[in-house]
Amino acid sequence: MIQKLNSDYDFKAVLNAICCEERGIDIMLGKAGFSYFYISDLPCGAANILKQDALSLGAELAVHAGTPNCSVARTDALLFATQRQLEALIDKESRQPFGLRAIAAELKRFLDIERIRPKVMGIININNDSFNSSSRTAARDAAKRAEEMIDWGAEYIDIGAVSSRPGSDPIPPEDELDRLKPAIDEIYKTGIYQKAIFSLDSFEPLPIEYALEHGFRFINDITGGINKEILKLAKKFNAAICIMHMQGNQKNMQDNPHYTDVAHEVDGFFEERIRLAAEEGVDEIVLDAGIGFGKRKEHNLALIKAYSHFLRFGRELLIGASRKSLIGEISPSGVEDRLAGTIALHLKAVEYGASIIRCHDVYEHVQALKVCDALRAQNPK
Question: Which domains does the chain have, with CATH numbers?
Fold first, then answer.
C-alpha cells in the first residue's frame, strides 16, 4: 500500500522507523522535494530497482539499511520526489518487473487526482434552522441566490432543506420535497441548472429523485451511501454521489464521539462504501471525511491532515468546514466571525488534496483560490 504524506510529517522519525542508515538520514532529508510517499512492504529486489531509478532522476527512496545487500527480505520505504521527477519515475517503473508496474499505476492515481483544479461549492439552505443563519434562503429566492454564487465563481451549488447540525431532527421526506419543489422548479424552468453542477443535500430517495429529474447531477449524502435506493438513483441518472463519514446520526453524533485511530477508521469506511457503490454500478464518487459530524476537535484536525492519504482512492475529496464549531474551539468566536478560520482550514485541506470546497462564502473562497493559483504559477513544480 502507498500513502501520500503531507509536508507536516516528522520525516526524521519516519526514516528512523524504516531503519535507514543513520548517516544517510540527513542527506535524504536535504533532498526532500514536494511529494512524499510511504510505500509499505516492498520486496528487497523491487526496492533496490526503485531506489536506483529514483536516484537517477534526482529523487530519493529511503529504505531499510539492510536493503542494498538484501539482508532483509522486505522493507518499507519513503519516496521523495518533485512532480516532474515523479512523472519520470512512473514512466520508468511502468516497464519494470517485481510488482513495480503496480506501484507505478498507484503513484499515477495520486498524481492524476492531485492535478484536478480546486472548485467551490456554494451552500443554499431552504430551511429556518441551519446553524449559519446567513445561508438560509427562501425557496422563491434560491434560483436568484444560486445565480449570484455562479457569477462569483461557484462551480457547484448545494441545496438542502433539512438541517444536519448536531441535535437536529429529521423531517418526513414528503415535507422535505414540499420545501424544495419551488426552488428546484424555478432553477429548472430558468435553465440555471445548466450553468453549474447542482447538488441536493439529502439522504431521502423521494426528494433526490425529483431533483435528478430536474437537472441536478450530484447527491450529497451525509449518511455515506448506505441506502441502496439512493445508489440506484445515482446509477439511473448518471449522477455523482458524495459519500460522507458520520459517526452516529445528526441527532446523537456529538454525544460522545470516540475513535481508536480516526483516519484509519474513516479510511476503512470509505473503502467499504466505495465497494457498495460499485456493486450498484456507481463509479462517480466524491469522498468527504465529515468534519464536525461525530468528531471532536482533535478528530477533525487529524482528518484534514489525512486528506493526502485519502487520495489513494483516486476520488475527488470534498472539504466542508465552513464556519463550523471547530473554528470556534480553536479561536473562540461566533458563527458570524469564523470566515478567516474557515478559509485557513479549507486552503490547508486543498494543499493536502481536497478539490471541492463546500462553503457559505463563495466570493471570498474563489478569490483565495485565485491568489493561490497565481502563487503556484510563479513556482511550478
Answer: 2-114 (no CATH), 119-378 (3.20.20.20)
